[in-house]
Every structure is written in C-alpha cells, then in structure tokens.
Amino acid sequence: MIRVGAALLVCVVLAGCNSVSSEGPLAGAIDGDAGQSGAELGRKNVAVFDVVDINSRTARFVSDYVSSALNRRFGIGGPVGRVVIGVGDSLKVTIFEAGADGLFSTAQSKQVSLDIIVQPDGTAAIPYAGTVKFAGKTLEQARQAILAALASKAVEPDVIVTSMGTSSRTVTVSGAVGRPSLVPLDLTGEKITQVIAKAGGPVTQPYETYVTLVRGNRTGTVLLKSIIEHPTEDIYVQPGDQIFLVRDPRTFTLLGAVKGDGRLEFGANDLNLLEAVALGHGAVDEAANAQGFFLFRYEEPEIVQNLLGAARFQELERKGMVADSKGRYPIVYKFDMSHPDSLIVGQTFPIKSRDVIYVSRHPSVDIRKFLTLVGAPLNIASQGAATAANLGQ
Predict the structure, then answer these.
(1) What is the CATH architecture assignment of 34-65+250-361?
(2) What are the Soluble ligand binding domain coordinates in residue numbering (predicted)?
(3) d(Cα 328, Cα 302) in Å, to the nearest integer?
(4) In this structure, are residues 324 and 383 in contact, taking their beta carbons and an 8 Å threshold?
(5) Residue 364 DSSP one-character state
(6) Which helix (H) or strand (E) holds 32?
(7) Residue 95 φ/ψ, nearest 5 degrees
(8) Residue 352 neighbours by CB under 8 Å, 6+ apart
C-alpha cells in the first residue's frame, strides 16, 4: 500500500507540472527562437526574426536614424520642376509699341493689356497674332511666341506675359485640415507644409496626424511631426497631387509582467522606453525579469542591416525572414534593466507607433506557480499515504 501511495504522489506532481499556465514566453524562449527557421524549430510558417541587445551605441543609432518616407523611399522628392502654362490658366498679355500709329497704340497710350484664358486645346487668340499655343510653355516662351507672331505687323513690339490664375496648377488637400480645398500653386513652387497652411492648417496635433501624398500611382505616408522636424521630408508638391491628412493617435501595446497592460496612446510628441513602461504603471517587482525587457517591431531595412550586419541579414532572409508591406523587417530589441546605465539607455530609445513592449516574467514565477498548484494535491497525497500505511499495520 505504501508503494501505491508513492505512485499516487508522483502522478499528482506530474499533473501539477503540466497544469502550470503560461503568460507569454520566458526570456530564454525568445532568445532561443531568434534567428531560427521553421525547420530548425520544428514548426511551420514561423516568423523569422533576430534579437538585438540594446546598449548606448545601438540605442543612439536607432534614435538618430531619420526615415525619409517621401523624399527617399518613394522617390518623389526634389525641387520644383519647370513651371509651364496649362489649360484654364488666366494670363494678362501686355503689348507695347514704339510708334503712335501702331496696331495697339493710340495718341494717349502705346500699350494694350489683354486678359486671356487658355482654352482646352492649349491655345488662346491674340489680335493680329492669331491663335497662339500657350499650354506647355513657360511665361518667357509664351512671350517669345507672341513677339514672333507680331514681328512683321506691329511697330517694334514688346510683350509682357503675366500669370493671373493657375487653374491648371492645383493640389487637392483634404481630411483633417481647416478648409479642405483645391489649393492653387504659385510659380515659384510650394512645399507640403505650405499648401496645408493654405488649406487652413491641420486640426490635430502634428504628433498624431499622418500626411499621405498621392502622385499618379505612387503613395507615401509620413507623420506630420516628421515633416516639421526634418525639412528634407517637406518636399515640393506638383500639380495634380492629392494630400490627405488623417488623425491617427500613435499607440503601442504593453504586455507581460506589468501592472497595467494593454494598448496605450502616446499622448505626447515623443515617447521613450522608460516612459512607455511607466504608462503601464511599471513592471511587477516580484514577477518581472529585469534582464528580459523586449520590444517587438517591424523596423526600417537600413537599421536592421546595420545592426545585424550584411552577412547575418542575408542568412536570415535565406531562412525565411520577410518584410511587411512597407518593406520593414521584424526585429526584437532586448533591454537588460538590471544594469544602472539602462536608465540612461531607456531614455534615449524612441518608441514608434504599433510597437509591442513585452516584459518577460522571471523563471521563479513558474516555480512558485507550480508549488502553489501542487501544494494542495501533495497534502491530499500525503494523507492518502498515511492512511494506506495505517491500514497496512
């Protein structure tokens, strides 16, 4: 009977071990899966990623990186191109003549001003010059065309062509702006922030307003805050561009051994790792693994390649690491908060929208859970063994 009681005790212990619930992976599990393919892990459709230990150097590199979503990634930046006249534009053509007996001069005036609108076929009629092609020409080219047409008719003519309205040069600005409208462009070229200002400006804070630029079949989206802080992103717009402003508060997800997990809003212009954890009321002292703070992110390819190195990056691609729809790669940043300088490093590491911060639990937590779960069954088993021993006497 004693052997039966001992066997019962072993069964209860094993059952208790299997019943320990899981609250996400331990730090060792994350480190162990890093850089492993599905074949190596014995699982199908595995998301291949790597873990990067964050120190002062890597934190500074990630913080200093400037993403050029419009100017570089989509290749639609650069200065304004050649400004030309278009269909529907309003022009003032002023013609001067040297003599009082000219076609356009009188005793009182040696000039005449004509208001014209470029017609759908790109032309407009000028007296004595006939039909003149304006569309596709600069103001100077239009001036020369009129002069050439009047050369043998007017008395030493001279011409000035002035733009009065640029109906062909408009940009659509809509969404979270003060006055959604068609914004006319001037001849010197205007940037994104300038046309947004013409449309009444943004109605929400720059740190939660996204700007989408549509040009032909290309689209680029960037945070308005980034355009303001990085002038290279404030690119010149072109006629026919569409600009949409959308309020989309930046959020991150906080999980694991924290006092308040969930999806949280930034609520500020910037947010670092320490501030993000603080928004969840900090880690649970008796449960959190100070050496296992992780940040999961789809990161810019330039950052990933720099942190991992070309050889490691190519190896992970061969193993199945793939980019998301925006060309970013999965990466996991690891923070060891047991070191004093982690409080400095954590202040310099920026949080991005849609980041997932996971605070892993300490391995001792599972041991405590196990002991709690099997404590009561062990007492029952001990009582059963004692009863069996008494019966055997």
Answers:
(1) Roll (3.10)
(2) 171-221
(3) 9
(4) no
(5) H
(6) helix 27-33
(7) -115, 130
(8) 250, 252, 297
Every domain of the chain and the residues it spans: 2-20+376-392, 34-65+250-361, 69-74+169-247, 90-165
Q: Which CATH class is domain 90-165?
A: alpha beta
Distance CA 64, CA 350 (A): 10
Helices 363-392 and 2-18, interaxial angle, to 10°? Answer: 160
Say how far apart CA 41 and CA 63 lie, in whole Å.
Answer: 33
pLDDT on residue 230 = 85
Domain 34-65+250-361 and domain 90-165, same fold? Reply is: no
Is residue 48 within 8 A of residue 36, CB to CB? The reply is: yes
Query: What is d(CA 109, CA 185) in angstroms, rounded to the nearest whole number?
Result: 34
Task: Please give the model's pTM, rounded to 2 decimal places.
Answer: 0.69
SS3 state at 28: helix
CA–CA gap between residue 130 and residue 150 (Å, rounded): 9
Question: CATH 3.30.70.270: does it fit domain 69-74+169-247?
Answer: no
Count of other CB atoms within 10 angstroms of residue 206: 15
DSSP 8-state secondary structure symbol assigned to residue 160: E
C-alpha closest to that of 145 among 157, 155, 39: 157
Question: pLDDT tier at 98 (50, 70, 90 boundaries)?
Answer: confident
- Beta bridge partners, 72, equal none
Residue type, 205: Q
Q: Give the pLDDT score at 80.
A: 66
Contacts of 307 (CB under 8 A, 6+ apart): 52, 58, 61, 62, 331
140-186 pLDDT, tens digit each: 999 999 999 998 888 888 999 998 888 888 999 999 999 999 999 87
Q: pLDDT band at residue 107, thresholds of 50, 70 and 90?
A: low
